[in-house]
Structures are given as C-alpha cells and as structure tokens.
C-alpha cells in the first residue's frame, strides 16, 4: 500500500481504491473469495442470431447478447452510420455522424410516408401536444425559434423578389 501511495502520479483520486481497508463494498461483500475473479462460471445461454445488418463498435467487435433488429441501417442514414462505426467511440467523428444520421433518418421517414401517400402528423410525432400541456414556455420558445429560422431562410431565398435594392438586402441581413 505504501509503495502504491509513493509511486502514484500527481493525478487527483489516483489509487483511491488501493487501500483494502477502504473498500467501498465492505458491508455488501464481507466474505470476499477469489472465485469471482475467474469470471462467469455459469453456462452462457445461446446468443441472439442476427437476421439483419448489425453495426458493431470497433472497440467491441463481438455482438452483444441481445440487440434490436427492427430498424436496420438503410438509405443515406445507413451509409452515414456505417461510416461512423468505422471510427472509434472515443472520436468526435464517430458521434457527430450518428447524430446527423438520426436527423437524416427522420427526413427519410417523412419522404417514405409521403411516397406512400401518407401525410405525416409532425405535430403529434414530436409530442408537441404534451409539450404544450406540460411545458408551455418551451413550446412557445420552440415555435419562436422555428418562425425565426423559417423567416431567415425565406429572406435569403426570396430576397431578390422582396427587395430589389442590394442596399436594402444588406441592411435587412445586418439587422437579423
């Protein structure tokens, strides 16, 4: 113990669990044995068999015991996810594409609904009714943000039709 404490680097909480008398599991594990160090000793049940493409982490190439199969990667969002899973989980380039893929998947779902003749009820799907009921302030903020973004996009797209004078356009964009 003293050797560990002497050799510890200057890192906060380094070796905090090195002292056996300061075991945080004390009342829960009074009779500690070495058998638990051997890993699991029970017979492992049969693993779920993959029936669709399952994306795996580069850190853990084996499949987990159970996994979801309802939404296999597909389309553009699937391509983004496949590329993201080529990167380590510790990299920003792994997580950001997964966030983007989720948003792309939403758009793909809307396009899929429209192609099947179904008009998506975006108001209900995003849970706006519950937000309006339980968190009206956030709902109003969200509406205001969407109106501001839509106005800015409309202003950029239709600026030539709305304003014929370049000076007025520049002045209007500066005020945004």
What does this structure look like?
The protein is mainly alpha-helical. The protein has helices at 2-7, 75-84, 92-115, 122-125, 128-134, 136-157, 159-162, 166-174. The longest helix is centred in the middle third of the chain and has 24 residues, at 92-115.
Quick check: average pLDDT?
84
Summing up helix and strand content along with how strands pair, one would put the structural category as mainly alpha
Give the percentage of residues in beta strands. under 5%
The gyration radius over C-alpha positions equals 28 Å
Percentage of residues in helical conformation:
40-55%
Provide tags for this entry.
single chain; 176 residues; mainly alpha; 49% helix
Secondary structure layout:
Elements: H1 2-7, H2 75-84, H3 92-115, H4 122-125, H5 128-134, H6 136-157, H7 159-162, H8 166-174
Short description:
With 176 residues, the chain is mainly α.
